[in-house]
Amino acid sequence: MHSLDPGRIFKGHMYIPRVSAFRRSLGRNVLALTAVSFFTDVSSEMIYPLLPVFLTATLGASASTLGAIEGAAETTASLLKLASGWWSDRVRRRKPLVVIGYTLASLVRPLVAAARTSSQVLAIRLTDRVGKGIRNAPRDALLAESIDPSIRGKAFGFHRAGDNAGGVVGPLVAFALLQYWAFDMRTVFWLALVPGILAVITVIGFVRETRPVGAAVPPTPITAAENAPPAPRVAVDTRLPTSFWAYLSVVLIFTLGNSTDAFLLLRANQLGVPLALAPILWATLNVVKTLTSTHGGALSDRLGRVPVLIAGWVLYALVYFGFAFASRQWHAWTLFCVYGLFFALTEGAERALVADFVGASRRGTAFGWFHLTVGLGALPASLLFGFVWDRWGAHTAFVMGAILAAVAAAGISVIPKPVRAL
After folding, report:
1. CA–CA separation, 284 vs 334, rounded Å?
2. Quick check: 407 and 253 in contact, CB under 8 A?
3. Residue 3 scores a pLDDT above 90
4. Domain count of the chain?
5. What's the CA angle centered on 235, arms 310 and 294, to 5 degrees?
6. Which residue pairs from 126-131 have beta carbons closer than 8 angstroms and sit at least 24 positions apart in sequence?
7. Per-residue pLDDT for 363 more than 80?
8. Dihedral sign, Cα of residue 112, residue 252, residue 136, residue 76
9. Less packed terminus of the chain by CB within 10 Å, N or C?
10. 231 in any annotated domain
11. Residue 76 placed within a domain
């Protein structure tokens, strides 16, 4: 028994689908990439919950400046995601770009500790996001190609759960360093280098390249029985389908109402959550995301991607309406917990839906376009949200975000549904 195709095995003069082994286990690459994301998020989330207050209180930046920094950082990342995804399809290798991206981000991220102006923070954040832009599309394509399509949602959900677990540990570490060891914010930022280095070691040592995308599948040998069914064939894509572009257009509408979560932390501070508890609030959000993300992704395998996405986007709208009318500190804690369920319902399903639309030979490019769409919406979304906040207040800004999410939820219900690609 042998195989030249990781999706099939050769047995008894014919190829048969390799299903059971894939379905029993998520596999080495999914586990390794999940660990990499965990360490990376520990590093990132030691910094991120403190960054809004660091910028506004320590460096004197406005809400609009905060939105500009975060929006520009995400847009930069997304432009590079398209290029790196396309390149990984062209050279038929994913891992080198994944390694480069994680290494760059891990080394530059702690330099926020040395920043003295908001423009320096912008430069550091942009470089950090360059690393993210290089790695994300090839990583998502690599993950999709390492798992059976029938549990694709579960695999992406599990990966997001590991990422979110880092979002639990990182803020807790930051809280302990601030509260019990009495370190200042700049020292906490420097110490974020440690988990970043662990992420780089893990991706270099444990992640493996998959079979080159678009590699030819050998013809199935003729069997003795004339009526033997032909072996499954893997289609080679020449272009991205129209339904995929329709999906991206709806994602863009939602993204325009999905500004940086830094505004949620700023709103929580307005509602009475003190700076010392900001990492704990952020960790609470990520506990909910960690506990529910795998289940949310698996739910999209069973019920379908679109119904689960609709539920998630409607929940997002309700949370933003809640933040618009919140008036007590406990409101912030409750809304952050519910907000975690939105991520569980959408993060795995969104990525799995991209992979469902597009076959392996164009999957890196498809993930690049997906991330580019999100990034192109991130900058105007954060700029608009910050402008509305400064001019008309937090209430109006959050209502605006809720309305856009509701419109997107209605839009995705009418796009053509994909047949899951291998």
Report:
1. 10
2. yes
3. no
4. 1
5. 35
6. 126/72, 126/73, 126/76, 128/73, 128/104, 129/73, 129/74, 129/76, 129/77, 129/105, 130/76, 130/77, 130/80, 130/104, 130/105, 131/100, 131/101, 131/102, 131/103, 131/104, 131/105, 131/106
7. yes
8. negative
9. N
10. no
11. yes
Report the alpha-carbon distance of residue 361 to residue 359 in Å, rounded.
Answer: 6
pLDDT at position 421 is 58
Q: What is the 3-state secondary structure (H, E, C) of the chain?
A: CECCCCCEEEECCEEEECCHHHHHCCCHHHHHHHHHHHHHHHHHHCCHHHHHHHHHHHCCCCHHHHHHHHHHHHHHHHHHHHHHHHHHHHHCCCHHHHHHHHHHHHHHHHHHHHCCCHHHHHHHHHHHHHHHHHHHHHHHHHHHCCCCHHHHHHHHHHHHHHHHHHHHHHHHHHHHHHHCCCCCHHHHHHHCHHHHHHHHHHHHHHCCCCCCCCCCCCCCCCCCCCCCCCCCCCCCCCCCCHHHHHHHHHHHHHHHCCCCCHHHHHHHHHCCCCHHHHHHHHHHHHHHHHHHHHHHHHHHHHHCHHHHHHHHHHHHHHHHHHHHHCCCHHHHHHHHHHHHHHHHHHHHHHHHHHHHHCCHHHHHHHHHHHHHHHHHHHHHHHHHHHHHHHHHCHHHHHHHHHHHHHHHHHHHCCCCCCCCCC
CB of 36 closer than 8 Å to CB of 207: yes
**Higher pLDDT among residues 275 and 235, named by residue:** 275
Distance of CA 53 to the CA centre of its chain: 24
Instruction: Select the more confidently predicted residue: 19 or 125.
Output: 125
- Would 225 be classed as within a structural domain? no
Provide the residue range defining the domain that includes 355: 8-212+238-412
pLDDT of residue 186: 93
Least Cα distance to 138 among 187, 183, 95, 186 occurs for 95
In 10 A of CB 259, how many CB atoms?
30
Indicate yes or no: pTM above 0.85: no
pLDDT value at position 371? Answer: 84
Q: Is 419 a member of any domain?
A: no
Q: For the chain, give the percent of residues with pLDDT over 90.
A: 45
